[in-house]
């Protein structure tokens, strides 16, 4: 998917504004060698200030990208610097599910998600010296009806405690899911198909002008 710009990528420093090895592995799948640089952006935006979930999540990802871009730019020339930032949240109706505060909160979330369809939003920002590209992708995730013992066992494993919505599709949590409508990688936190399309546009349109 990145073949049209492969010869250009080697001229750029690509940085992932994240401490997530999972997201780093996803960009490696594409043959993209990105450095990890966790953002110090404080994720405390007020959702009430945004009309749509997508606007809120893109603003959060933009905050992460701009913080890392500014910090790295202070260390030297940023002409060939590209910062990738992403944020993911889970919604059920009008309720938003971030990372659980503790095990009890994870149990609460999973009881709500049990037998229901939740929507995952993944917002992505590509920040470079000339500007920004940003987008949001969504996927609908259908959960089976879960027994209390199944929820408790999953929470006890520790797997859901650092994940939006208190579940991870790539681990044991994947067994709770009947089907997905949308990009599997959107649920993982970086929708690879749309990401590749936007990165190609960035190089072939934004950076070529």
TrEMBL record:
InterPro entries under this entry? ITPase-like_fam (IPR029001), Maf-like (IPR003697)
Origin: domain of life: Eukaryota
Gene3D superfamilies recorded = 3.90.950.10
Q: Which cofactor does it need?
A: a divalent metal cation
Q: Name one GO molecular function term.
A: nucleoside triphosphate diphosphatase activity
Task: Name the HAMAP family on file.
Answer: Maf (MF_00528)
Q: This protein is called what?
A: dTTP/UTP pyrophosphatase
Q: What is the lineage of its organism?
A: Eukaryota, Metazoa, Ecdysozoa, Arthropoda, Hexapoda
């Amino acid at each position: 998917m990145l073949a049209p710009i492969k010869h250009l990528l080697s001229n750029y420093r690509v940085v992932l504004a994240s401490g997530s090895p999972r997201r780093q592995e996803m960009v490696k799948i594409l043959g993209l060698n990105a450095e990890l640089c966790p953002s110090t952006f404080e994720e405390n935006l007020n959702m009430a200030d945004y009309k749509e979930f997508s606007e809120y999540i893109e603003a959060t990802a933009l905050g992460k990208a701009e913080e890392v871009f500014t910090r790295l730019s202070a260390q030297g020339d940023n002409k060939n610097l590209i910062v990738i930032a992403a944020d993911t949240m889970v919604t059920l109706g009008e309720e938003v599910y971030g990372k659980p505060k503790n095990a009890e909160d994870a149990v609460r979330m999973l009881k709500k998600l049990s037998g229901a369809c939740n929507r995952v939003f993944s917002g992505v920002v590509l920040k470079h010296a000339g500007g920004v590209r940003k987008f949001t992708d969504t996927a609908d995730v259908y959960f089976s009806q879960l027994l209390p013992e199944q929820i408790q066992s999953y929470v006890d494993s520790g797997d859901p405690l650092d994940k939006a919505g208190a579940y991870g599709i790539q681990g044991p949590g994947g067994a709770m899911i009947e089907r997905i409508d949308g990009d599997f990688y959107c649920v993982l936190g970086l929708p690879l198909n749309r990401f590749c399309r936007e990165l190609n546009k960035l190089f072939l349109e934004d950076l070529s002008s």
